[in-house]
Amino acid sequence: MELNTPHEEWDLEIKPHDSVFNLHLKDVWNYRDLLWLLVRRDFVSFYKQTVLGPLWFFIQPIFTTIVFTFVFGGLAKIGTSHVPQPLFYMAGTIAWNYFADCLTKTSTVFKDNANIFGKVYFPRLIMPLSIVFSNLVKFGVQFGLFLIVFIYYLIQYHYFPESLKPGDKVEPNLLVLLFPILMILMAILGLGLGLIITALTTKYRDLAFVVTFGMQLLMYATPVIYPLSEASEKYRFIIKANPMTGLIETFRYGFTGGGKFYMDSFVYSVVASLVLFMIGLIIFNKVEKDFVDTV
Amino acid sequence: MGDIAIKVENLSKAYQLGDFGTGTLSRDIERKWALLRGKEDPFLKVGEVNDRSTAGTSDIVWSLKDINFEINKGDAVGVIGRNGAGKSTLLKVLSRVTVPTAGSVKIMGRVASLLEVGTGFHPELTGRENIFLNGAILGMRKHEIKKHFDAIVDFAGVERYIDTPVKRYSSGMYVRLAFAVAAHLESEILIVDEVLAVGDAEFQKKCLGKMGEVSKGEGRTVLFVSHNMAAISNLCSKSILLKHGQLQTMDYTHTVIDKYIRTGENNDGQVNFEDLIIKQKSTKAGFYALRLLSRAKGITADFAINEDIIVEIEYDVYEDGTTIQPSIHLLDNLDTCIFATFSAPSASSTVDPFYKKPLQKGRYKSTCVIPGNYLNDKNYKINAFLVPEDMANMAFAESVLAFTVIETGDMRKEYTGDWWGVVRPKLAWNTEAIKL
């Protein structure tokens, strides 16, 4: 090895333009420790400021389920395709919240972290990824709660069927095995959309307002409080155009056997999630380079 | 010759000025369209220099323009320049916070940048947790932080409070901990912006010592921005001088500092009547021009700390028989008046023959000398007044002249820390033993 020859091999080259498809995923891998520390930070700082601490993870889905059962099940009498109402609403609400949190929190990543991004470099993708993993932790806790409710109704269905509403059933099937894949799909769908939105909001702030109330409206265009079968034939295509539909329906069907498995919706959801995720990554990657100049 | 650690080639960075929240979409489309057809970006005008005092013709400003330099491995290099010269932009590009508009930077080795102390510290987390988080943000792996953990805690001197949330830390402890993390990074290249301005003098000294150790002892490359010339000349053998986004010189530090002080700016330091901000007009007299002069280099806005600052006021007297009393106020950056002075014989060290003398119509020039070794290394402003017999009828120009007093290192042979006070006079000191 000769030290005097000028080396043309550089560790890093900073250039104005880079290939759109160079996503610096290797960089992300090098910073994996940061990812875990950020998830830990989110978790710790979440309950450090509260009295009830981690209990909040439970309170939210429990109360939502109670209110939904009362309003949509009791007052509006929307069918739940023969799934016990609390189980039906809880399945919908935890899955939806997971997706919605992934989306809304990643959609403000640039704005929320403008200060830190302006001072130090690390792969920007780490931040949205840490949000997704933090939400996964939260979902994991809530899913535990769901499992308790699920097992409770399963036992009731098998041993005390008379205590259930006539016709209600809990019949898990093999599609339950899709659960981990569904979680990943919901995560990348939320992440993908969030990345697109955050990238656009650095310049066009209006989008930030759309997200807040848009997510509320979108929930009603997703079979969270009703099964897809209850939607009238005429408008079903709108609900089916929502990529979350296939995922939530499949999730609920796998565990409870309520409704049916819509293959077309599921395939559509898979494709849409992957495509939106890729688009999100590419746009995010393009914007992250000089967003500090515009924010 | 050693290897090159950083090679900067034709580096340029443009910023868009003004409000670009409105009309951006249509402009974006126009730009995209031009780029699609393979034409140049219509909103980038090449060749404009970043001079803040003259309004440019486009709203694009080149914060860095065609910068070329190389830094060898193990060198400590200072970056010198006035505010707005592009120092921070250069560091931002080098530390990958933003991308250049043109040109490239090639880097050999891992870069750690410290543009701010304590980036990413979370107030709710304990010192221990924050060391890991901050270390990871700065690019360290967990096992590397573990390895240096004791050294970090020791350097910061916060052993007792390591498991206390940092929101309960004093600001000094906070800064110490944050710097300690950065100083123990295992990177080949360390980029440091003016971060030592915070923290007490003792700690600053410790940090400078640590940085010297890093560059000299461990053979790591350091790039250091500071307004503290003493710190730069202590730490860096070579320096870069930036002006209006362009590289003026890269040479040995003392040569560069010398040049920095000598190159005044011809425009700054003089204001003519058409540019004056007149707070109040008088019917008796009006300003014609105001100037700041150094004996060595004429009109300038930069003064070495030991240089006399000559303030010239040129004014027109409108009526025969008027008496005019010129006066100035010296202000600091916060608009606090440091002193007021005028030419009355009992209030000045020289005798002004025109004091209280009825003047003929015409133009006059009054001069006031602010002695060297009197002000601190800060920015100052001047208010100017022309007061006739009827004081209510005076002319008043607000903040007409701004100037900077620059550290030369002459008074810094013993002490390099932060120097308190709006002035820094050389006073007579003596000690004697009273009782032994």
Automatic annotation (TrEMBL), chain A:
It is found in: Cell inner membrane; Cell membrane. Keywords: Cell inner membrane, Cell membrane, Membrane, Transmembrane, Transmembrane helix, Transport. GO terms for cellular component: plasma membrane. This is Transport permease protein. Belongs to the ABC-2 integral membrane protein family. Its main location: membrane. It comes from Mucilaginibacter gilvus. The chain crosses the membrane at residues 55-75, 87-104, 125-155, 175-200, 207-226, 266-284. Residues 52-287 form the ABC transmembrane type-2 domain. PROSITE patterns: ABC_TM2 (PS51012). GO terms for biological process: lipopolysaccharide transport. It is a multi-pass membrane protein.
Automatic annotation (TrEMBL), chain B:
Residues 44-269 form the ABC transporter domain. It holds the Pfam family ABC_tran. Keywords: ATP-binding, Nucleotide-binding, Transport. Belongs to the ABC transporter superfamily. SUPFAM superfamilies: P-loop containing nucleoside triphosphate hydrolases (SSF52540). GO terms for molecular function: ABC-type transporter activity; ATP binding; ATP hydrolysis activity. Transmembrane segments: none annotated. This is ATP-binding cassette domain-containing protein. One of its GO terms (cellular component) is membrane. SMART domains: AAA (SM00382).
